[in-house]
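Quick one: examine the sequence and fold tokens given here and explain what the tokens say about the fold. Here goes:
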Amino acid sequence: METIIFDKDITAMYITASSFPDGVLAAHQKLHTLIPFTTDRRYFGLSRPENGGQIVYRASAEELEPGEGEKLKLETLILKKGKYISLIIHDFMKDIPAIEKAFNLLTSQPDIDPQGYCVEEYINQKDMLCMVKLKD
């Protein structure tokens, strides 16, 4: 595990998956029709228990200019600056169960932020960084 520092808040615009895990791929596909993949932008999968414990998943992209989400008629949220613990998964599409294993390990660590998200950052088309925010 490595610690990564977000030195500033990140505004993420998102599409909420219809369900988890079944709706995840469709949410990303819809997001990418609005915001095609580019190396200039960070892309995320954000999830956490909400509404009585049910996992809510959001396919997300970093806003590059203020108000971009609003222009695209997308909701936004803030990924808070601070320390995140992380694990990398190489070629994640070949081992989808590795994602759940990584987050089970990350969320079992002490001092995680109970209001934070499980953050998947898509480094490129094959590799993913799994992160969980630590308490400030």
